[in-house]
Amino acid sequence: MRNSWIQKGRETNDGRKISERQSIEALSSGESEVKRTLSFGRAVGVMGGLIIGSGIFYTGSYVLDYSHGNAGVAILAWILGGLIVLGAAMCLSELGGIMPANGGTYVYLTRTYGKASPLLGFTMGWSDALIGIPGNAAIAMVGATYIGTLFGGFSSLQISFLASGICVVLTVLNLLGAKGGSIISTVLLFVKVIAILGVIIACFVLGQNTGDPITFTNTTGEGAVLPALACSVVAVLWCFDGWNSICHMGGELENPKKNLSRVMVVTIVGITVLYLLFNLGVMRIVPIEDIIASENVTYDVIGILFGKGAATVITIAIICSVIGSLNSCILVYPREIYAMSRDRRWFAACGKLSKKSGQPVAASLYILAMMIFYCFVTSFQNLVNIIVLYNGIYFMLAVFGVIVLRKKYPDLERPYKVPGYPVVPILV
């Protein structure tokens, strides 16, 4: 039973209809029309590179603001955010082990909910294709803005042109092959991790303990703990955006039934620890009210420790972080468009692969065109608001799909099972 069966709209090449169970089993065979060239290490690089963008460098200010300056609540929010994402990742790892194919969440939803699946797949796919995936232009705009700071600032039009140029260059590089694109993400991941670790070490080893003590006391205003914690966790979750990204490349991952869960768990646990230590380090050096008031607290920390001249170095590190995240997006997300096209829910041209590189060229070029369009017609904040709104709905449905498939097909081969089922999926 070949994977090409199922990528063509629930029917074989001779037009014979197949059941939902057969559809899942076809994908479960592990056969793929694309080459499985993505090793465990490069997969961690792609996923980590996509998640760690610019957010870690300034989101800590928002988290403390939402928590009314309560450092204890802020730290708890970073821990809870990591645990929520880890639980969700374990749920998608079970689905990915059953259906190790390109397309990720889109593929899982279109093969889980019976008669509702076509509608869910259609709405999610078109939402992603028109808004969600091209919305990654927001990352390019952040990168262009940071580059502008090195040259005294750019106008909005200059930022749009530069952001578009970044998208073009990264798309061309990734069209040469998934291996090359994943190497770029991995190299830039090392750069950003080294930069973050450098800040952490400097804060704990070189800096004086000039920040406020970590207590469960509001320092900037009154407010109940639970609402403050809830808002803080939402801000934290934005820093983990892209946690499901490697699922989109399930068809290119080496030994996906084993490696998918390992990649997701190792990456998310590592990033959670990194985020937690980074924020503890910053709070050790900078008072809480100063963190909340700062537009770039990382810049301020480096200024305190090494002087303002070192700000250029950290700005370059942030630019590498942003570009690395965007590169992973451009590498990963055309796979969803490709899967949609193979299921006849998007234009057929995007369902073809390059014979030379094995890459979904048409899907990548479509996303590039839309990203350039968004660079000129909207703002970073508008893109983020729209993406966050609908993403939560489909992630919730995907996680609940673990319970649905356990009930409908308890005998399916499950190389990985969610620990603590059904408590973990329900809590997530």
What features would you describe in this structure?
- Helix content is 67%, strand content 0%.
- It has a single domain, classed as Amino acid/polyamine transporter I.
- It contains 19 helices and no strands.
- The relative contact order is 0.20.
- The longest helix has 30 residues, at 256-285.
- It is mainly alpha-helical and 428 residues long.
- The radius of gyration is 22 Å and the shape is globular.
- α5 (71-98) packs across α18 (380-408), α8 runs antiparallel to α15 and α8 packs across α17.
- Keywords: Membrane, Transmembrane, Transmembrane helix.
- The chain crosses the membrane at residues 43-64, 70-92, 157-176, 183-207, 219-240, 260-278, 310-333, 361-380, 386-405.
Kindly report how far apart the N and C termini lie.
34 Å
Shape summary = globular
Q: Strand tally, please?
A: 0
Overall pLDDT, averaged? 86
Radius of gyration: 22 Å
Within CATH, the superfamily carries the name Amino acid/polyamine transporter I
Low-confidence stretches: 1-9, 12-16
Query: Can you tell me the number of structural domains?
Result: 1
Number of helices: 19
- Beta fraction: under 5%
For the record, the CATH architecture stands as: Up-down Bundle
Multimerization status: single chain
SSE topology string: HHHHHHHHHHHHHHHHHHH
Please report the first level of CATH classification, the CATH class. Mainly Alpha
Keywords: Membrane, Transmembrane, Transmembrane helix
Subcellular location: Membrane
Pfam families: AA_permease_2
Membrane topology: Multi-pass membrane protein
